[in-house]
Amino acid sequence: xxxVRFLVDDDFPPLHFPGLDGAPTxxxxxxxxAACERLGITCTVQVRRFDTLLDALAAxxxxxxxxxxxxxxGLRQRFDVTAPYFKIPARFAARKDRxxxxxxxxxxxxxxxxxxxxxxxEAFAKAFMPGTTLKPYPDLAAAQTALxxxxxxxxxxxxxxxxxxxxxxxxxxxxxxxxGPYLESRFFGEGVGFITxxxxxxxxxxxxxxxxxLWKEGKYAELYLRFFPVSLF
Length: 233
Known about the structure:
- With 233 residues, the protein is α/β, with parallel strands linked by helices.
- It is built from 9 helices and 12 strands.
- The chain folds into 2 domains: 4-86 and 190-227, D-Maltodextrin-Binding Protein, domain 2; 90-188, 3-Layer(aba) Sandwich (D-Maltodextrin-Binding Protein, domain 2).
């Protein structure tokens, strides 16, 4: 087979970002390399600006996009995609010292929940969390500061951003995830997969096969734990 050219962005850690040596790395990048190794094919990884990735793929300047581009109907009309290899759930976070119960319909009654204004998380909370006080914030950093400062009972937001904060120095170990992940695709999307051109179905099917084998063989879990020490799930 020909050399397969993967296109990535280098500004979305921990999925794709420059390593210490300047070469692209991250969960999506290393998963792509593992898939190539599993298939026994030669691959290259080329860095492009995020907003140019799909056009570069369409123009034949690469063969696969391995970046955090959400799967949706519009994308499928233009390109072929593998099964999702990564999803970003919504999660609740709370201060550890508050010992709050697992968030459920009854236990959330009367609680103050922080959300990011204008997001799917805010829309989900408005639809499914009656009896709560929703407190919107302009961005995740402001909401995290409020949670750390005790202004909120819970923060409901993007698990990726929360995990990086919980495991980082800025949180000072104040908080942790509570309750399970929320994966409703109508609100939080279908996830992320490898994207190929529609005329490259053999490659798409080969990548689907490789992803399945990497999952069965434990390589997926190994890479996930390397880049996500605080699990999103």
